[in-house]
Amino acid sequence: MSKEKQEKHKFTVKLLKEKKIARDAVKEAKCEELKGETKEKCEKSEGSFIFYKRNSDESNFGKKPWWIDYFALDKTKFKRNFVESLLVFVTVKDKEKERIFAYTFGVARYWLREECIESDFGYKVALNTIDPTKIKSVDARSLEGNAKDKRVVFSKGMDIEEYDCNKFLDFIHRISGKVKEQYKHLFDSVAGSESLMITATKSKDELIALSKELLERFESDDYKNDDSLKEINMTYSVADIEVTERLDEELGKLLKKRDYSTMSFSDVKILDPDIFEYYLFNGKKYYDMEEIFDAWRDMHGSVDFSSADVLGKELRKTITVYTNDDKELDSWKVKQCLNADNIKFDDNEYMFLRKKWYKVDRDFLSYVEKEVKEYEINDEWIRNIFVDYDSEKYQKKGQGPFGEQEYNIDCCNANSEQLVLFDRKMVQSENHGKIEICDVYCKSTKTFFHIKKGEKTALMSHLWIQGLTSAFCLNAEDKRYVSKFKECTKLSSFPSQSEIKICYAIISHKKALATLSNFSLYAAIGKFKEAGFKKEQVKYFFINEIKAKKN
Q1: pLDDT tens sequence across 216-265
Q2: Which residues contact 416 (CB under 8 A, 6 or more apart)?
Q3: What residue spans define the domains of the chain?
Q4: 536 CB contacts (<8 Å, ≥6 apart)?
C-alpha cells in the first residue's frame, strides 16, 4: 500500500440532484471569480473535474493545503503554490443514469446552489453507516412546547439510546460518530447532515469507487433494521428549497380554495394563565387562538388570493398578546402561528409548523395513530359527568381565556359526591417543583383527570407532561403531594399506583389529535409504561365542545 493511501484525510461531500449538472450547481458569482482557470482535469479520475480559487491575500498564506499534492495539481498555476479552496466534481454511473458528487475543500461548500443539492444525503449515509453505540454528537430541533435547536455532545462514543430525546418531537438533522465494522474499509468516522463529512484513507484514484459506495448507502434504508435507529428519521425538517417552495404552493392552493380543514392556529409560546388576558388581532380582542383563526378565515371571504403578494400579506398579519393589566406580552406573525397537517405531495405526507415544513413517514404515522387510538375511551359514565362544553357560556371575559376552570367547577358541583376539584391548587413537590395534582379527581374510580381545551400542539404537550409529572410524584409517594391530596379529598388513605387511573380530557369540537400531538402522546404513553403503569390505567377522551354562535 502506498504512502498516499495510508494517509488519512477529511472529506466533505455533497450529492447533486438527478439531472443536475456541475455547471448549474455552481453559483454565478463564484463562477465569475473562477473564470479563466475553472476546469483542471484530474489526471487519473475519469469523469472528474475541478473548480478552484487562488488565495489573493498574501497575508493569509500559511501551510500549503494537502489537496494540492493529493490531486497532483500543476503547482506552476498557483501563486506561491497556495490555493484557498477546491471543488471537485466526480461523476458515477447509476443504472443508466449519471450522478454527480461534489467534494469540497476550504470554503468551496458555499459555492454550490442549495436547490441543486440532495438535502438529506449526508444524514442518510451517516444513519446507514454509523455504529449506534459510538455516537459522538446529535443535533436536533425540538418541537415540544417552544421550538428550539440543541446539540448533545458525548465526551466518549455513547449509545444512541443514552441520548435522552423524544424521538417523535426531537427532529434529528445531524449525527456523528464512528462507523460500523463493515464500513471501516470506506472511512473511519462520519458526520452527516446535508453534507457528508468523512475521514478516510482514499487516494484520488479511488474517489469514483468511493462515490459509488456512498450512493449505495444513500439509496439504502438499512438503518430501519436497527431498533435504536429506525425511529429517529420518521419525521424530519425539509431543507430542500425546491420541495419547500412546492409545499408553500400547495399550502397556498388550500388557502386560495379556502380549504382550512387541516389548519389551525397555535400559540408560539405556552402562555401563563395567571398573566395572560387576551389577544389583539385586526383591532379586536380575542381570548382563544381558535377564535382568531375563525376570524382570520372569515376575513378571506372577499379576499382575492390570485396574487402571491396578497397571500403573503395575510400571513404577515400580527397577533399581539396582552397581560391582565393590558401590557403587551408578545407579538407573533400569523405564519408563526399557522399549523397545517396532512399536506400530501409526491406520495409523501408533510406538516407545516412554526414556519417550517416537516416530512412524516406515512407507515409510522399510521402505526402511531393506531397505537394511540387504543387508549381512547368513550364510556357512558364519563359522558354523564363531563357534559358538553358550551363555549358561549364559558368563554366570557372575566372567566379566563378558555373557561376551563368554570367548566371544572360546574362538573364537580353537579357530582359533588364523586368529584373533587384540584384545578389550580398547586403543591410544592419534593423533586418536581410546583405542580398541579390534577384538575378533577374521581373518588369512586380513583381517576386523576387532566383537562385542557383545544388541539394546540404546545398545550397538548403540556397536558401530557402534567399528567406524567403528577403520576411520578404519586409513584414516589411524595410527602407534600400526598398531604395535599388528603387535605383536598378529606380521605385518610392514599391510592396505590396499581389502583389509580390517569385520564386526559380534551375539550374539542374536532375530536381528533394533530400529528404532533399523536407523537407526543405516544411518547408519554411509553414513559407511563416504563414507570410500571398498565394500559388500562392510562386513557384519554374528548369532551364535546359546542361552538359559540357567530354574531
Answers
A1: 999 998 888 887 776 666 666 776 778 888 898 888 888 888 888 778 88
A2: none
A3: 3-233, 241-360, 370-546
A4: 501
